[in-house]
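Write out the 3D structure for:
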Amino acid sequence: MAQRPSFDLTKLSTADKILLGGSLLMFIDTFLPWQRVCLGILGICPSANAWGGNGSFAGVLLGLFTIALLIGEIMVVGGVAMPPNIPVSTVMGGVTLGTVLFALIKFLIVIGKSGSYGAWIGLILAIVIAYGGYMKMQEAKAVSPPADTGFTA
């Protein structure tokens, strides 16, 4: 009888745990109010999440990069084997960079126009994801063998 695959989070590196948690929380945060605009006399204050409002293009890209990062980390947790010709670390590094970049762009656009608590949470999560990406980069450097320069000691 074949054994079922299991998700063992204890086997994940700290960087993967940070990226998985940060991307999941960022995805949830994109649905929180990032922007609140009061209409003055009427006293109505509608809000917009990261997917809409000012800078919606950056918000949509933030959401898409976050989904891609979350799916990539879920694949790491699931132990999905990728073909050897796909540079997974480079792709995941680019997705992590895109998530952080568009979170910062959306934050800067929104905060000048009545930003709400979702934008501040998004900024904190972008910093967390950037740190997780940095740690992942350091892990890749520690694992990869040194380049052969041709010189001998």
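The mean pLDDT is 84.
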